[in-house]
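User: These chains co-purify. Model them together.
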Amino acid sequence: AQKVTQAQTEISVVEKEDVTLDCVYETRDTTYYLFWYKQPPSGELVFLIRRNSFDEQNEISGRYSWNFQKSTSSFNFTITASQVVDSAVYFCALSEAGFQKLVFGTGTRLLVSP
Amino acid sequence: DAGVIQSPRHEVTEMGQEVTLRCKPISGHNSLFWYRQTMMRGLELLIYFNNNVPIDDSGMPEDRFSAKMPNASFSTLKIQPSEPRDSAVYFCASSLRDRTYEQYFGPGTRLTVT
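Assistant: Joint model of the two components:
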């Protein structure tokens, strides 16, 4: 069965601090996809990144970076030099190959104060 | 390009009334998903379609819920009769099935059943 665990319910940081959001997943499949979505206070869900199980290279996009480690079944998300606009709920999600269903974690609420 | 369009954005109705939520996927996308978000259960998939055909409706709570996709550019989610426990935010998402499983979400419909 698929499962995504985001153990951090809420994180508070001050602007310019670095912050890492943890994501641990469970799946029996060898081929799967991992995602991060952002849900700002306005409520929409914004796609941030997709990673497939065969690609363990870390990815960097501006202030955002992602660390995928199959050995620990983790797909962590780091925001460098956080900004107030980063305040949102961040969801990690998993999809097994052949199944389009996204299984979401419970989300981590990030509060960045000035 | 327009993203996923959902209407209405907010719906307030009385218990027992019929509610219809609407979704227009991104043009060219051939998969469509309906999700529900609540505090208690988080984000959960209700049903999804590939090429207008329902593939997995195992997440539909009960017979009061039904979804249709009469063509590639329109889908509805209907609740009849509605109950207070149906109060939630309902998201529609679309993706290209033969690509990377990235799902793009609409702004959601916030449903309140009194």
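The radius of gyration of chain A is 14 Å.
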